Amino acid sequence: MPVIAPWPAQSSTASAPREGADDAMAAGTTVDHLTETYSAHYRSLLGLAALLLDDTASCEDVVQEAFIRVHSARSRVKDPEKTLAYLRQTVVNLSRSTLRRRILGLKLLSKPMPDMASAEEGAYEQLERDELKRALRGLQRRQREVLVLRYFADMTEEQVAQTLGISRGSVKAYGSRGIAALRVAMETPV
């Protein structure tokens, strides 16, 4: 989330002295302004979330959480004209986080093994998965994030770059270093 500075509260006098302007800057936005923004833009922000998420309940949760976050940061928002842009960005970021949690949750859930030939085969595969998870935990944070999003969440390099806020070249670099580190970790006996 961007760092934002305080904005002046609306003043009843047009020519307030500089000292009064500093007091207004410290006050930040009013709850009334935020309430008006909520009333005017709730549906459009809900529509934005609906384009990013697949169920209404999650969309409503994301939009409400965005308003809560803006409400708690209202004293730091510098320009009231940018409140809507700040809300939109917050909705997008929260939607991304929601999707990321869902995708990772689905990918990391243990799936039942269909038609297992023997208990030994299932146990061996479970050991391999555990070994892979242990090796992933040993990677640097960015390498682990890139590999999980790229290979477990089936995202493209561009999607991973956008999600993590890094360049596509960085995704490639972290990915190749992460795979090399995984190979070393997987070959080393525990």
Automatic annotation (TrEMBL):
Q: Where is the RNA polymerase sigma factor 70 region 4 type domain?
A: 130-182
One Gene Ontology biological process: DNA-templated transcription initiation
Q: Cite a single GO MF annotation.
A: DNA binding
The record ties this protein, via CDD domains, to: Sigma70_r4
* UniProt region (Disordered), positions on chain: 1-23
Keyword annotations for this protein? DNA-binding, Sigma factor, Transcription, Transcription regulation
Task: Please indicate if the UniProt record lists Magnesium as a keyword.
Answer: no
Q: What PANTHER family would the database entry show? A: ECF RNA POLYMERASE SIGMA FACTOR SIGM, RNA POLYMERASE ECF-TYPE SIGMA FACTO
Q: What is this protein called?
A: SigE family RNA polymerase sigma factor
- Supply the source organism for this entry: Streptomyces tardus
